[in-house]
Amino acid sequence: MHDIDLAQTPSTPLVRTSSQEGRLTMAGDSYPENPFEFFQPIIDWVDSYLTDANGPLAFDLALVYLNTSSIRAMMDIFDRLEEAHQNGRQVSVHWSYDPDNERVGELAEEFREDCTFPFTIAPRQ
User: What percentage of the chain reaches a pLDDT higher than 90?
Assistant: First the structure.
């Protein structure tokens, strides 16, 4: 399994994965020109990790803005985490956000409503 290490750009978030630590991190704005092309390797990594590794998976988010296509991709990732959780896998999400950006906090709350795994939302200090 190849880890991902993408630098943040004006329209795409930083993305880092660590199969050794069982961690996926995303931070920044997300409105890629081609959302499928951008998110598919991330979704593939999640699928691969959940299939090939035995440890827990932690998903750390510090997203500032997501367009509609990015929201759909995040839903796909959360659906995979939920399925893994329902099958006994330890997964979690921690979403930190700027308290001045209430919309992102509300969006995180909307995602959390559909998840039964540990999902924390915290304003950054």
Answer: 94
